[in-house]
């Protein structure tokens, strides 16, 4: 695996080497230049804990998260290579930050990452800020969403594109599609053969709607270099719970080289602070109940959606299959312009919508619908949408 030249991993100077040797021998060293106020009793009482500056995130926090993941994913079973080692985790503020760090790790300016389309436009935005090209690969809908694997192969094997990472959103937003079992096998092999890392964003993984039985996480995959992203924002349905993490897995040599460089990046930008990490035990305690609460809401609203569409007189709106996540894509008559529908919803019902072109849908006539609202609000919004579609069709 080839990494970017932006990260300096040159050998340390003799002073650092001697310092590390002394520490490994249990020798306590005192720093003449120690500028950490928490060591010298200068921090405020409300922040009295000692700051350890662990680049990967506080050790205790990583151990707690690793223990939670091992129990959640049952990583002692035969389908998973091994239990998660906390040293394979990097705890940081968000998956957005994780994307930025990984682009620094893998890409020089002008290199590229691949991301799905339709998809949420975050990857392109972060890539642009990192001077990295974002190359789309298509998803197609034929009863369910599938990845165009031949197109992915064609792009990966084109050396002129300088592709360094394949981003897989599992499940994707807004299509709600998990990576299928047969796609997973081919993509892992393609990335392995072409020295391309996988960035697997699995923040919505636990929110299954209409899934296939063979879904699986990429986290913990051993066959090729994988950086799996997850965090509290979606797990707790709390976007202000800014704790995310990167799990590194793959062939041992690739993991070693990746972590050597990722440690440099993490040390430069620093992980989450004590004021946040001290709440991690409390947040983990809420994880299971919060996830179940959101599961119940989105599944109940999905059932309401299906029932309402089936009973609406002469309904011209359909809901595409959503395997997982919080959103579902609706298909509305393509003779209605996306902007006309969105503007009429604002005008008549004070409702803001997201038409399909926000996510690079291939044609007119798509709309993303959240399954999160309380039931009364959800059904009112849905009926307003259906009524607006009927009105606009009558005006045609």
Automatic annotation (TrEMBL):
<keyword id="KW-0808">Transferase</keyword>
<dbReference type="InterPro" id="IPR004839">
    <property type="entry name" value="Aminotransferase_I/II_large"/>
</dbReference>
<dbReference type="InterPro" id="IPR015421">
    <property type="entry name" value="PyrdxlP-dep_Trfase_major"/>
</dbReference>
<dbReference type="InterPro" id="IPR051926">
    <property type="entry name" value="Ala_Aminotransferase"/>
</dbReference>
<dbReference type="Pfam" id="PF00155">
    <property type="entry name" value="Aminotran_1_2"/>
</dbReference>
<dbReference type="InterPro" id="IPR015422">
    <property type="entry name" value="PyrdxlP-dep_Trfase_small"/>
</dbReference>
<feature type="domain" description="Aminotransferase class I/classII large">
    <location>
        <begin position="53"/>
        <end position="361"/>
    </location>
</feature>
<keyword id="KW-0663">Pyridoxal phosphate</keyword>
<comment type="similarity">
    <text>Belongs to the class-I pyridoxal-phosphate-dependent aminotransferase family.</text>
</comment>
<dbReference type="GO" id="GO:0030170">
    <property type="term" value="F:pyridoxal phosphate binding"/>
</dbReference>
<dbReference type="InterPro" id="IPR015424">
    <property type="entry name" value="PyrdxlP-dep_Trfase"/>
</dbReference>
<dbReference type="GO" id="GO:0004021">
    <property type="term" value="F:L-alanine:2-oxoglutarate aminotransferase activity"/>
</dbReference>
<keyword id="KW-0032">Aminotransferase</keyword>
<protein>
    <recommendedName>
        <fullName>alanine transaminase</fullName>
        <ecNumber>2.6.1.2</ecNumber>
    </recommendedName>
</protein>
């Amino acid at each position: 695996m080839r990494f970017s030249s932006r990260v300096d991993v040159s050998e340390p100077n003799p002073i650092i080497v001697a310092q590390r040797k002394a520490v490994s021998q249990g020798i306590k060293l005192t720093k003449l230049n120690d500028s950490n106020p928490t060591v010298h009793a200068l921090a405020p009482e409300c922040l009295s804990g000692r700051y350890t500056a662990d680049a990967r995130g506080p050790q205790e926090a990583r151990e707690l998260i690793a223990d939670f993941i091992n129990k959640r994913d049952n990583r002692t079973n035969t389908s998973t290579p091994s239990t998660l080692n906390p040293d394979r985790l990097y705890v940081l503020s968000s998956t957005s930050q994780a994307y930025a760090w990984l682009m620094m790790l893998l890409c020089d300016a002008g290199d590229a990452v691949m991301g799905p389309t339709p998809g949420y436009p975050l990857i392109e935005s972060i890539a642009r800020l990192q001077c990295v090209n974002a190359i789309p690969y298509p998803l197609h809908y034929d009863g369910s969403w599938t990845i165009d694997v031949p197109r992915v192969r064609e792009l990966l094997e084109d050396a002129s594109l300088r592709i360094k990472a394949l981003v897989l959103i599992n499940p994707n937003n807004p299509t709600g599609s998990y990576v299928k079992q047969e796609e997973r096998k081919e993509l892992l092999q393609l990335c392995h053969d072409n020295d391309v890392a996988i960035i697997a964003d699995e923040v919505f993984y636990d929110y299954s709607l209409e899934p296939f039985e063979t879904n699986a996480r990429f986290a913990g995959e051993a066959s090729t270099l994988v950086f799996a992203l997850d965090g509290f924002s979606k797990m707790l349905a709390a976007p202000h719970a800014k704790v995310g993490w990167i799990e590194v897995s793959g062939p041992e040599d690739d993991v070693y080289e990746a972590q050597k460089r990722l440690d440099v990046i993490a040390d430069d930008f620093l992980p989450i602070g004590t004021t946040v990490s001290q709440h991690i035990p409390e947040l983990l305690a809420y994880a299971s109940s919060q996830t179940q609460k959101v599961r119940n809401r989105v599944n109940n609203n999905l059932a309401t959606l299906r029932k309402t569409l089936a009973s609406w007189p002469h309904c011209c709106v359909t809901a595409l299959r959503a395997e997982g996540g919080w959103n579902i894509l609706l298909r509305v008559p393509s003779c209605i312009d996306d902007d006309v529908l969105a503007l009429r919803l604002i005008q008549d019902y004070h409702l803001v919508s997201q038409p399909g072109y926000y996510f690079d849908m291939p044609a007119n006539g798509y709309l993303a619908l959240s399954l999160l609202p309380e039931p009364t609000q959800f059904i009112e919004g849905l009926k307003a949408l259906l009524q607006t579609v009927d009105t606009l069709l009558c005006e045609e």
